[in-house]
Design goal:
This protein is of the alpha+beta class. It is built from 3 helices and 12 strands. A 6-stranded antiparallel β-barrel has the order 1-2-5-4-3-12. It has a 6-stranded antiparallel β-barrel with strand order 6-7-8-11-10-9.
């Protein structure tokens, strides 16, 4: 009885993997959800759906056996559906950037992989030199700035996240206080609190919690005005000469699937 249950679990996991792979392929093919699809894209979509049905068939028919827990089958399928809905929503949010960042040419990309040892430092995307990607280009999601391009290859690129522990990686930001821009440096991330760290704020700056932080545009590395987050916590340094701000972002850095790279229009 025990061996039978182990086989069922292994088979279910394998089927989930195949279904997930099919879903990802289907999403990549149909990345731009709002334009008319070509004949080729339609063909691939149909094929993907057909494959999906074939993959699911043994799973559903297998679970009709009386010895299989139907609740387990339902929960697995429910999780697949919820994951698909979440990915579609994220795609729509990324595509929305194409209409809001009109002064830039936006290249949408999919995350290829992340190194568990450097989870908050870098990630790889599926766009590179062939797509016009260059080093130091700003990378965003619908939730704001997430990093910059640090390495470029022919068909892929590496993104250095703003949560990186690289002390030499600094982002110039601005906090608007009483109608005046106050410049500071974003450099650091607290994994326990999930807050970004901003230093170089004068002790006389009347910054408050919930004040909005955006990129300043200084240094010409990042365009001005990209949303970073809001002030969550304020601390004075031990000499009471400056303030350190802790910033809450909208982005969940544990959960990034799609990004947009800002390319200057020629």
């Amino acid at each position: 009885m025990y061996k039978r249950k182990s086989k069922i679990t292994t088979k279910n996991k394998f089927i989930i993997f195949l279904v997930s792979l099919t879903i990802i392929i289907c999403l990549i093919v149909s990345l731009n959800l709002e334009r008319n699809t070509s004949i080729v894209e339609t063909f691939f979509k149909d094929i993907s759906l057909y494959i999906n049905k074939i993959v699911l068939y043994p799973f559903t028919s297998f679970n009709k056996e009386s010895n299989v827990d139907q609740d387990e089958s339902y929960l697995i399928q429910k999780n697949i559906n919820e994951s698909l809905e979440k990915e579609i929503l994220e795609l729509k949010e990324v595509l929305q950037l194409n209409r809001t960042m009109t002064e830039y040419s936006i290249e949408n990309a999919t995350i290829l992989l992340r190194n568990k040892s450097y989870w908050f430092n870098t990630l790889m995307i599926d766009k590179g030199k062939k797509n016009g990607i260059k080093k130091d280009m700003a990378v965003i999601t619908s939730n704001g700035l997430i990093g910059k391009i640090s390495k470029v290859y022919s068909n892929s690129s590496e993104i250095k996240l703003i949560t990186s522990d690289d002390l030499n990686y600094k982002v110039s930001v601005s906090i608007k206080v009483n109608g005046t821009d106050n410049y500071a440096i974003l450099n650091g991330y607290d994994q326990e609190s999930n807050l970004l760290k901003i230093t170089g704020v004068s002790k006389t700056t009347d910054v408050k919690e919930k004040d909005v932080v955006v990129t300043s545009g200084l240094g010409e590395l990042f365009p001005a005005g990209i949303y970073v987050g809001t002030v969550e916590k304020i601390k004075n340094d031990k000499y009471n000469l400056s303030k350190t701000l802790y910033i809450k972002t909208k982005q969940d850095f544990n959960n990034i699937h799609y990004v947009s790279i800002l390319k200057e229009k020629k």
